[in-house]
Amino acid sequence: MPTILKVGSFRFFFYAGDRNEPYHVRVERDDKIAKFWLDPVRLQSSGGFTRKEIKQIHSIIDDHRKEFLEAWDDYFGS
Questions:
Q1: Rounded Cα gap, residues 24 and 72, in angstroms
Q2: CA nearest 26: which of 37, 17, 16?
Q3: Is there a contact between 15 and 23 (Cβ–Cβ < 8 Å)?
Q4: Cα-atom radius of gyration of the chain, to the nearest Å?
């Protein structure tokens, strides 16, 4: 489960078993885990985060979308 990025207390990653799903990234903090699709960026599951946190996470993902897509392709192959 490679970590792609850490921003503050948020850790962005994907699971090794995610290969057969569309591009996405997961984010965790403490016991909360959300999942966002990357093409286009949209929330798939909020995992207990507040609306304010989801908005903040969405903004971070927008800013790093290219990096997440490249990390996905590097890990799983394009």
A1: 8
A2: 37
A3: no
A4: 11
Domain ranges of the chain: 3-76
CA dihedral 2, 20, 62, 12 (to 10 degrees): -20
Tokens representing 9 are 């207390």
The DSSP element (H or E) to which 27 belongs, if any, is strand 24-29
Alpha-carbon span 30 to 41, nearest angstrom: 23
Tens of pLDDT, residues 25-70: 999 999 999 999 999 999 999 999 999 999 999 999 999 999 999 9
Question: Measuring CA to CA, which residue among 29, 27, 15, 33 is closest to residue 62?
Answer: 27
